[in-house]
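Consider this:
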Amino acid sequence: MEGPPAPAEEPEASSRLFLRLLKRFRRRRRVRRLYWREPPRDVAFGSRDAFWSHLTGRNEGEIRWLLGFSEQFTAPELIGIGYALVPIEQGRAEWRPLILLDADLLGVPPQASVLQGLDPAEVPLPGGVVANLPDAHFVPTRRPEPLSGPTPGDLVAPEESWRISSVGVRAVRELSAGEWQPGFLTTGHGFPGGIGVSVASVPRGRVKRVLSRLLGGQRRIGEVSLHRSPLLPGAKSDPKEYDYAFVDLDLVNEGEWPPGPFRYPTGLSSYNFDQSREATVLGGMSGRFEQATVIGALMGYERWKDCWLLAPASSFAPGDSGSVVTLNETGEKLGLVVGRTVWDETPHQFFVQSLERVMAEGLGDQGVRLEWR
């Protein structure tokens, strides 16, 4: 007599077990490349004119004039050009032109707030600037300093340098149809050697950092493949630049890199600044800081293009360059920290390279997609 048939559930149970084991294997499998059947979703970008017009709602003629002025200014007193987010009635805010001036050259105290400015009649700039911007804020401040200094820092660094940066945003770049290189985005000025620089992981803790450097304990994790950076310290006549480095990772756990989160930034549709917005900084050196506030946006800022201006900066330190900044309300990524202003040994403001603009002005055309949320 034949025995009872095998339970019908066993093949299904075996299949489920096989799938679980396969998923576990894929999560742990170390790979150099990712192969995705469905590519990340793309979003179209506009020009710089469109970006600034959409953001501020200001007159297009004024936008074009300020953009041109921000590329060409050489006056030694002039540090930055853009817009300040100014509170108005009932908790609302609006964008007004912002001109940042060198407090040391003017012989006046620097101001921490973009609302505390100089009388336009006292501003040593060509008369056309004041006449073309009747509601502008002229604010004295100190010159910015980058936050990837030649000191032991945190997270990542060129293998042959003490210049430290923070990992900013996970990203991928397309190599061919369906083949993607995993990596991350950080600031370019932390890797002055540019493309081809070998990147090492740097441990937390000052003693550990120094020992790992002196004893050769740094671990290579990848290599810079895309790079742009302003000349630092540079001269007033040097062109302004974007500031980023894409680092190809040598190996990643395949299962930790699904295609869904990677895309172009979603544009400015949800960047609603009719009131002040708070943001969070995930600092590689200084840790998480959730009380930052967007106070302005700068077309040109000393050596940089298209940066957000935020405050306060009291918790930041060299090594925080590259740290990602997100809007608290939506979770969207504004950009990467590139520097700060300091006076009386106290940091006051920090500036953040716009991720949307670096994507629109180069990275997007090179097949890069960011982990956006």
Summary: Residues 10 and 16 are 10 Å apart (CA to CA).
